[in-house]
Amino acid sequence: MKGSISFKMLLILAIWGLLTFTMVLPSWYAYTRLDGALDTEASRRLIRQLHQISTLTTQEEFESVEQLQRWLVQTSLLLELRLTYVAKNGQVLADTDIPFDRIKELEDFSGRPEIAQALHGELGFMIRFSKRMQREQIFAAKSIQPKGNIPPGVLRVAAPVNELHTQLDRLRNLFLLMLLLAFTLSPLIGMLLVNRLKKFNQGVADAIDALAEGDFGQRIRVSQIHEFYLPAHSFNRMTERIGNRLQTLTAELRWLETVFNAMGEGVMVLDPKGRVRSINRSLAELIDPHTQALGRYPLEVLISLELQKACERILGLKEAPSESSHEVLTIVHAGRTFEVNVFRFQDQDQDQDQEQETGAVLVFHDMSRIKELEQVRQDFVANVSHELRTPLTSIKGYTETLLAESEPQPEVLSSFLQVILKNTNHMVRMVDDLLQLARIESGREMLKSARVNPVEALTAAWKACLPLAQVKQVRLASHLPPEGIDVWADSDQLARVFRNLLENAIRYSPEGGDIVVDCSVASGTVTIGLCNDGPRISKHHQKRIFERFYRIEKSRVGDFGGTGLGLAICRHIILSHGGLIWVQSPNPDRTDGATFFFTLLSAEEP
């Protein structure tokens, strides 16, 4: 095509132009402005410090050069500068970086540029590399006349170049190196890209012949670039002739694929030989990604002999097909339980003279959650039975002992009855907590949400826990705002949460421990935390601590201080309020302790 330009040259020129106008010019302008600004600011700051120090020096009266040395050292420590005093003959009398007894060993400083300028009555200034400090420094010098026995001379101030200036120089060198590499490599990259595109172009031209035989693809956007024009034009001319014929079929196929892959249940389709023809996305996620499912038998994909035999019966691979075209079975794979429905189907679109092709469709329903809930129910029944068995056994034993005694001693009778009463009260509390938990979970206990001050709920809960706290001498420190902070909650239920958390904290706190209550507000949510000094809770236990009857210390099962339901009740109450509850252990900057957090909606005006 005449008048077209080479894509290779166009690409190289575009890259070079882009690098020039987007990197070189803006970066160089920014560097010069920033470099000058840094030098100017550093110079001004050092000169101001020189004038201030020289004024202070002329106001002081020094009896000796050694006294001047001490005064300059003290001043340099405060300002983090190097101070030098040089006599008019070039001899150094004092230097804050040189011990006083070695100053006489220094060479003549009159040849230093900044010193020479100051000796001529000017303000000396110089930026140069210091051999002694092995880095670039800024020097400023001024002639002064100190009081006392110090001869007139020059006061010089030295400071290292701004660290930003050093970093800027390094950045400049790195930028120049990268820019050189970019300009050098861009033509090579451009040629590589063009060569790859030429190969693609040739591949499209070769695909035109395949299109005529039914190998359909996508249209190519027509371009004015010489390398793409001819194959793109030929390809689009061919696809225009057949595109209308394929549009309806392609849309239907995509719709069926979308439905197939969007199904939540796993689906497997088998051909007449019992091999996998296709699977949807849900089933593919259950299979080992390294397993190639298509073309294999179900037994090779999901290790289940029962499933393989059911497919063989439906398809009649080893015997006559079963009369029923549908079977249901349960299999276990990768720790999950599935109910599998196996259906036989026949192709109804074939000619009547031909034998209808059969196949099978397998639908996998995930029953793992149902099995898990069943296991939770069984564990709950077992835990309740176990928790009630201990107090019931104790009551039965003490009662039988009393019945066996015709006339028990009064003190023995009183002691036994106290034990029976203690176990009875424990069972009553447990049953009450179970009923409370059941009402909350079922939603039968209606919440009376209103503006509630957590301070009032905390105070009421602490009064109920005070006898238990006094026994262990546990103290409460509340950091809640004295004026209160309103939240949306049921006041009785909030007090119940505080009471359960306080009882739990008191029970596990050491003698004389402290319980700290704090809160924070963010984005309309109030987060309240109760911190205790108890033992550390491991990550494993933190995940299950809010379950019913879950105890960290199995040896404390016989301890009737709690029912094992307090944290579970707290969790359901907070969730019913639309909040969250969790535990953090150990406490920050500690190796022990735990903090229980829960959130509520703030009732404060935004």
What can you tell me about this protein's structure?
By secondary structure, the protein is α+β, with helices and mostly antiparallel strands. It folds into four domains: 15-166, Beta-Lactamase; 263-366, Beta-Lactamase; 372-440, Helix Hairpins; 446-601, 2-Layer Sandwich (Heat Shock Protein 90), CATH 3.30.565. Helices cover 50% and strands 19% of the residues. It contains 14 helices and 19 strands. The strands form five sheets. A five-stranded antiparallel beta sheet has the order 3-2-7-5-4, with helices on both faces. Helix 4 (163-212) crosses helix 5 (226-262), helix 9 (368-404) packs antiparallel against helix 10 (410-442) and helix 12 packs antiparallel against helix 14 (566-576). The model is unreliable at 554-560 (pLDDT under 50).
SSE diagram, text form:
Layout lengths: L6 H53 L1 E2 L2 H15 L2 E6 L4 E4 L17 H7 L4 E7 L4 E10 L2 E2 L4 E8 L2 H50 L13 H37 L3 E5 L5 E4 L1 H4 L13 H4 L3 H11 L10 E8 L2 E11 L11 E9 L1 H37 L5 H33 L7 E3 L1 H19 L2 E4 L8 E3 L1 H18 L5 E9 L2 E8 L6 H4 L23 H11 L4 E4 L9 E8 L5
Parallel strand pairs: 1-6, 14-16
Antiparallel strand pairs: 2-3, 2-7, 4-5, 5-7, 8-9, 8-12, 10-11, 11-12, 13-15, 16-17, 17-19, 18-19
